[in-house]
Amino acid sequence: xxxxxxxxxxxxxxxxxxxxxxxxxxxxxxxxxxxxxxxxxxxxxxxxxxxxxxxxxxxxxxxxxxxxxxxxxxxxxxxxxxxxxxxxxxxxxxxxxxxxxxxxxxxxxxxxxxxxxxxxxxxxxxxxxxxxxxxxxxxxxxxxxxxxxxxxxxxxxxxxxxxxxxxxxxxxxxxxxxxxxxxxxxxxxxxxxxxxxxxxxxxxxxxxxxxxxxxxxxxxxxxxxxxxxxxxxxxxxxxxxxxxxxxxxxxxxxxxxxxxxxxxxxxxxxxxxxxxxxxxxxxxxxxxxxxxxxxxxxxxxxxxxxxxxxxxxxxxxxxxxxxxxxxxxxxxxxxxxxxxxxxxxxxxxxxxxxxxxxxxxxxxxxxxxxxxxxxxxxxxxxxxxxxxxxxxxxxxxxxxxxxxxxxxxxxxxxxxxxxxxxxxxxxxxxxxxxxxxxxxxxxxxxxxxxxxxxxxxxxxxxxxxxxxxxxxxxxxxxxx
Length: 480
Ligand code: GLU
Description:
Layout: H1 3-48, H2 53-72, H3 74-78, H4 81-85, E1 90-99, E2 105-116, E3 122-128, H5 134-150, E4 157-162, H6 171-185, E5 194-197, H7 204-218, H8 238-256, E6 265-268, H9 273-284, E7 288-289, E8 291-294, E9 297-301, H10 307-319, H11 326-330, E10 334-338, E11 349-351, H12 361-369, E12 374-376, H13 385-393, E13 397-399, H14 401-404, H15 407-421, H16 427-449, E14 450-452, E15 455-456, H17 458-477
Parallel strand pairs: 3-4, 3-5, 6-7, 6-11, 11-12, 12-13
Antiparallel strand pairs: 1-2, 2-4, 8-9, 9-10, 14-15
Bound molecules: glutamic acid (GLU).
Glutamic acid binds at residues 123-125, 197, 199, 226, 380, 408-409, 412.
């Protein structure tokens, strides 16, 4: 190489170096700006909602991914859309009086948070659980807005429920409670206004009692709830949809990353509706689920939970309303771990399907250390904020609930379509549509969440994709 060539090369290197330094400085400055914007925004939200930790957690996760996007798309910033989305359109709180089997007068608190109706009537489940309060329901309603937007269907977002605990209550007590709850709720819902469904503690039995009471007080047979029984307007596949959808989504994620579910060891938490049908679909697609849990502890079955064992779990939980530790008495070789969660098990994939914040940082670290490659949230916000950071930093594939578990509400949307048409679609038809919806949610997340050739940030993808549709509709409709 001549001396001139050397000089030229040195100049090129120098220029490149300066360009790198300038680029890095700009990136850091941008990140600092975003951080300041996020802090500023959260300051405002925290000031108004200081006693609502779950709600603030859900908002922060969205703000961290959406604010950088709105900085680059100023029309959303100028119209203050994100702050508007954080304020429920309406919050209803009411007394639910009922009488227990001993003749005692009991009072519970009922709620319906009508969060956002920009793209459709309020839609979202009812949760009956002693931990229910305004913060929990606002976080769920907020998440529901983004989730429902992702489904491709015209569904706004809402959530409701009560601090009533169905555990240990007789069928008659549950019926009297549901009737009292619906007597009040019926003033606020309707097929074009707000269409509730089930969530934790609200399954087919409760939806039946709620529907019956609505019909009685309104004298109207209408599709005002989803998750109904097949005999009175329900849809095939609706009970299965959240779990099936979560596994369809996991399958999409794995395929997009050159992998599959075949032979994968899976930790599933929970043993309710979502966990049951997650296990069923995992088995169908060749994976090996090895755990289930309830609030008493978890089962580790090294031989795998097969169809026969799943049938047992379904009977135990849905008919006998028993506890999961009974599994270990029935199937030798299975271990029951009292008071623990399944995240210490050495698995390839994790499916948290129980409840919010059930997977904290230390468990996320254990999963990563044990070689877990993917986390797919069947529940709503089961991973804590610092747990998610662990997965993100380790590039663990991570599908947030608002994308992964959207199959439940999407199939509720399909139930509404069938009710409007006064038709019932076949099992195959509904299942096919569910699969298509999960595929399109996955594509949409990829569009907004791709980081590089080998990694998609599904949290950013889901939040931004969900946000854009709602934000555009809000802008079109004016400041209402
Ligand atoms: N509760 C479910 C969810 O978290 C379903 C809601 C619905 O079907 O309306 O999405």
